[in-house]
Amino acid sequence: MGVLRLVLGDQLSPNIAALDGLDPAHDVVLMAEVMRECTYVPHHKQKLVLVLSAMRHFAAELRARGIAVDYIRLDDPDNSGTLTDELTRAIARHRPEGIICTFPGEWRVLEAMRGWEEGLGLPIEIREDSRFLCPLPRFRRWAQGRRQLRMEFFYREMRHETGLLMDPDGPVGGQWNYDAENRRPFTSGLAAPPPRRPAPDAITQDVMALVESRFAANFGTLDAFAWPVTAAEAEAALADFITHRLARFGDHQDAMAAGQPILFHALVSTSLNLGLLSPRACCEAAEAAYRAGRAPLNAVEGFIRQILGWREYVRGLYWLKMPDYARLNALEATRPLPWSWWGGETRMNCIRQVVRQTRDLAYAHHIQRLMVTGNFALLAGLDPAEVNEWYMAVYADAYEWVELPNTHGMALHADGGVIASKPYAASGAYINRMSDYCRLCAYDVKAATGPDACPMNALYWDFIARHEHRFAGNPRMAMPLQTLRKMPSEKRAALQAQAAGFLAGPEMRPEA
Ligand code: FAD
Ligand code: DLZ
Ligand code: SF4
């Protein structure tokens, strides 16, 4: 035969580099469902169903185009359980001249790939993943020699290079960034049209049964499973967002509302990360809506910035900084995850809301991830390794290249400021301004000490006090440090005692 072309579970794009130049008469595509990928973190049930069902749909689409696909199912009795061993078995079956694969999304998989040539005794070609708007060598060039790697400057270069949302004389509207118009506080009555989401078809239902039988103990429920598993479904979901939610995406990007997990967000990350949608197509659809007068600039620029800016930037950073990045723990945080994060009882309504919707949907939007669970983890000093594993496990869109910089860097400041020039630390007042969670909470957001005081308040001041010396030279931390220093010592001691009491209390029980 010709060449064996490996396609991984998050490489489900017809234009994936490994398929370039495929000779249908001689080449075979290998796709394998393996236990190692299904268990390297305890994935949410919906994430497992999503990836395996999308893989099966993609294999069927390739076959319909006349391409030979050797597809190994998880319940195949001879399944060896790892990608390396499935490659070994496939080589014995097909006797290929060589193997072609695409650069993966995680360091641990790249390490395995790099060992294949020697281990399998065949030439291996690892091709650049061309689905991103910024190739990795381009990102490295941008980063070289810079003291600070700020997203905003990277984003401007990407706007220039791609021409997205650009006029001949500069950025559309004259401004690069409309973030200041994207932070409207929560207003009562805020309601978004419910997204149109695809119902599970027969293939997905089969996978659901498989996952329920093999991964019964994993976190999450399948009842509300409605993720796109094909490119056609993903395109329909994008069109639904552009038509019904994009126009208000900007204004309410940072808002959170009980019972409204999605609000005006796009729900495209799972499709983008699997390869069912392209980042350029998402950005172009949003720009077209702006140019047709169907969405305002703050919404469209905000959406494009997330994809062209943040998404490309975190990927570049991940590959620039790994593998040492994952081991950083600049704030020396060591506390285990509380049981409430796996569904255990908590009186904190913000945590309860976010964990419940995560259990039911495998989804939380950015501010919920950053400013509710992320902020709590930062303030309480939760161990970054445990927090990273949780985010990797519970969200349907989680792959290390995107999860790690966001969690480790942006939320936990464990990288000491590579991504964010200051920690995203906030007291209960922020959550109260941006959501209706506090109104329905057993704790009092206005109180910082006492049995019913909002834990975020004392934890916030305890965090600032714990890291007072580290942040002393950071101008962006000057305000809270000044407030702390002016604080009467009895008040400071009371806040620290309140935080210590909470951290030693029942809410922080480690096991689920
Ligand atoms: P929208 O809010 O509608 O945004 C549109 C798209 O922009 C997203 O689909 C996504 O592709 C991109 N985007 C937005 N923000 C970011 C960002 N900070 N980094 C990268 N891309 C971004 N995103 C993931 O795809 N996988 C993850 O594992 C992941 N983990 C995260 C962990 C933490 C602690 C935080 C704070 C953020 C994380 N994000 C992750 C980023 C962001 O929260 C999700 O991309 C977003 O919530 C997905 O929902 P959406 O498609 O409705 O996004
Ligand atoms: C996430 C995932 C899961 C759950 N299962 C598989 C699988 O069985 N086979 C496969 O090829 N890929 C799977 N994936 C996606 C991989 O984990 C992903 O390709 C790597 O993490 C690199 O991003
Ligand atoms: Fe969360 Fe505090 Fe608000 Fe309760 S009062 S929802 S704990 S921020």
Instruction: Give average pLDDT, whole number.
Output: 96
What is the CATH architecture annotation of the largest domain? Orthogonal Bundle
Radius of gyration: 24 Å
Question: What is CATH's topology name of the largest domain?
Answer: DNA Cyclobutane Dipyrimidine Photolyase, subunit A, domain 3
Number of domains: 3
The SS-based structural class is mainly alpha
CA-CA gap between termini: 51 Å
Number of helices: 21
Describe the structure.
- This protein has 21 helices and 7 strands.
- The mean pLDDT is 96.
- With 512 residues, it is mainly α.
- The chain has a 5-stranded parallel sheet, with helices on both faces. It has a two-stranded antiparallel sheet with strand order 6-7.
- A hairpin with a 2-residue loop joins strand 6 and strand 7.
- The protein has 3 domains: 125 residues, Rossmann fold (3-Layer(aba) Sandwich), CATH 3.40.50.620; 134 residues, Serine Threonine Protein Phosphatase 5, Tetratricopeptide repeat (Alpha Horseshoe), CATH 1.25.40.80; 170 residues, Orthogonal Bundle (DNA Cyclobutane Dipyrimidine Photolyase, subunit A, domain 3), CATH 1.10.579.
- Helix 8 packs parallel to helix 11, helix 14 crosses helix 18 and helix 18 crosses helix 21.
